[in-house]
Amino acid sequence: MDGPGRPGPRRGRVLEGLRAYGLIAAMWIRSTMAYRTSFVLMTVANFAMTVLDFVAILLMFSQVDALGGWSLAEVAFLYGVSGVSFGLADLAVGSMERLGRRVRDGTLDTLLVRPVPVLAQMAADRFALRRLGRVTQGVLVLVYALVLLDVDWTVAKVLLMPVMLLSGAGIFCAVFVAAAAFQFVAQDASEVANAFTYGGTTMLQYPPTVFAQDLVRGATFVVPLAFVNWLPAGYVLDRPFPLALPEWVAFTPPLVAVACCALAGLAWRAGLRSYRSTGS
Asked: Keywords on this record (predicted)?
């Protein structure tokens, strides 16, 4: 048993990983800020590229009044929540997508010999502050949606907003880590991983009513991306819930995020144990 005030081995390992992550990320931030003009240009470019996605939605609504029964303001709400949640996850652990390349060229071995958790090293590697451009764009679209929406704001709905964004970020972080773990056994699977990360956030920008029921079921019960925005948005916007689910599921994203992170952690540990050095 651990003594009073002394963290257990697992908790100590987590704290060590978070501390290492912070130090590595801070190092990359200092490196980025040494070239401020380049940083500003890259952030603006990142912002501009993500804006095009919403421009496509605006063009659709120039031809129709509703998309799957959802108004422009409601779709913008979905877009904003998805964009902010994914942007935060991409900022925090987006570098995980490089794992397959490190496995192929053998550079993962250099991370294994360091006295720092490999997950923390991979997540913070080349920490890209420019990804704030995606987060900023998502925030602006979300604010735009909230201005247009006529919502009867209750205490529960107000409190659900930050919970929704943070839980969504946690779910996407878990997807990033699980997808990276898959690359231990399939090094060329980065495009498959992107289908669940970048493809997932693109899917969530649109209402569930435009997709086949089987896809919605998969996004609810298999890879639970629906808990990022579709389900909590149903409560905030007073919309029918996908698959006729009960109203209380709108408040479960934090539990789903914790479960997803736990499963992603197990997948990561299994993948790391299965790794065999290339010897290069």
From this structure: Membrane, Transmembrane, Transmembrane helix
